[in-house]
Design brief:
By secondary structure, the chain is an alpha+beta fold. The chain has three domains: about 350 residues, 3-Layer(bba) Sandwich (FAD/NAD(P)-binding domain), CATH 3.50.50.60; about 110 residues, no CATH class; about 140 residues. The protein is about 35% helix and about 15% strand. Strands 1, 2, 3, 5, 6, 7, 8 and 21 form an eight-stranded mixed β-sheet that branches. One of its GO terms (molecular function) is oxidoreductase activity. Pfam families: FAD_oxidored. InterPro entries: FAD/NAD-bd_sf, HdrA-like.
Length: about 625
Amino acid sequence: MSPKKKWIVAAVWLLFAVAIGLPWFMDTASRPSASSAEAAGLTLSKAAIEKYDVIVAGTDPEGIAAALSAARNGLRVLLVDGKGRDRLGGLLTLGWLNSLDLNLAPQQTAEAKRSGNYDFLNKGIFQKWYDQLGGTSFDANAAADLFEQMVRDERNISLLLGVKSMEPKLEGKVVRGLAITDGNGRRRVLQARAVIDATQDGDIAALAGAPYTVGREDLGNPDARMAVTLVFKLSGMTEDIWQSFGRRKDTGVDQSSAWGFLEASNYPSSNPDRVALRGLNIGRQKDGTILVNAMHIFDVDPLDPVSVQEGLRIGRREAPLIVEFLKTTFEEMKDLSYAGTAPELYVRESRHLQGEYRLTMADLMENRDFWDAIAYGSYDVDIQRLGRGDYGAIMMSPRQYGVPFRSLVPKEIDGLLVVGRSASFDSLPHGSARVVPLGMATGEAAGAAARLAIDGGISFRQLAASRSGISKLQTMLRGQGMDLRMREAKQPAYQGHPTYPGLLAAVSMGMTLGGYDNNRWDLDGLSSKDRYLTMMQRLVKMHPRYFRGKPDGVMAGYLKSGEPVTLENAAHALLLTSGVQVKREQAVAELKKRDWITPATWSLISHPGGLTNGETFMLVRDAVARHAGVTYR
């Protein structure tokens, strides 16, 4: 039977289940009879078993990896989703993100780059899934079928869909399972010895009371977060049209992916405050359609269902207009037709857990390894647009950094691990760590960790503090196919620069960016009014208790755009931004009197008439450390 017909049969079963108030339940431990199950690939049960070793909340790829890993380690697992979804795969299969941001090893051969057979970090379950799909982009339906097959093949996994809501069952501050409400409003309590939160937004951890930040809150912008995307579809793709994409000077193409069409960013939005277009990322499907990831929708709160639905409506209204623009702007697309939008939004950012360790920009800047690393990342720190007038940024490109197991363990709450993009990452490094391949690696690690914690009769927090326990976990992960090597690499050149401590602080506070090649910091180049003003503005956002001035007004009177920043002007602006009233000609002496700047930084400044970017970074770094008491390292 074709996959399409399988899903039709499954849908009929789902409607039946909803009609009688039952969730959609697949128990792979008891194999279905040949009649209905062979057709649908699923079975229905009137009641799920109420006790499990592990409950995995969330059916995105990270949750699937966690469930598979736990099941393969002999645990009885329930995989459950509370979003009313009818298929596995979440962002990839319902958000239609079929071209992945890949987590590559530092060195890639020319053949790997040409063929798409890359050397991935971590490997494991992600690698096995990816290899079966093939290509740099994949067919979303094929991905869903493969996820279903992988889950169905594990006898220890039960699958529960059609759930209206789910929340943690707590005993004090320990998560002991989930309380779920089915589509008919019936409430049930499911017990577990461990719970893994693989929801996109860290919903279970939040409901359990684990601390977290939202969006750019850690950077002083609690209402700012990356734009969401609604992927849209075009039909009518042929091989000739596909090959014509590759003949454009601004566009790259391989067998399954295309990227470029940079003029798309000139799209005249019908609602420019809420929606915009960037260059196109395109993935081919097997049915002659393509999926396009390019639309940015602003000011959507992923934690507010009303806001999410509004974002969907905005995107669905705009998508046909975008397609008409593409058809008239690009000759190669004139014969393509609009064919709809994804069922779900692609949400990049919402909650950021506060765990036993929180990944920092310093970790990525220095390509740090950790004694408890259970996965590795390498993707660029890609910060997408925050709103109209902002154009996003590549903060820097790490070679390889470790993700500690402690970043999966929430503070204050036991019995729970959090995997995927809502794990314990600061918002800037999250721009790299949010990618799906890394998230699947954290899920795989969490599933194995559940086995260790249960067998040892210890909490996840105790496991996170145990060097012998983590060593056992790493051995388990290697045994199931994960690659936990830290590849050899030279220290980045910027790390040896005398102003590197200042650069590290400036990057951590979002004051500067390095781009894809880590050179845009321009440490030896002269600073400018615009750069220094940005730094002062960020100081006010990051440390408002200590820097309360208005830098725009402070600097407007004596710094012209393009002129170098003198030591006197820099010191004056820094003091006034901190609320210290002083005459400009007395500012340097006042800084020295207050002892905000270290002797090492004073000694670096050789030309007070024109400070370099690196020197201004050092001034700010010292002032934050000695005045606000915060050191970035």
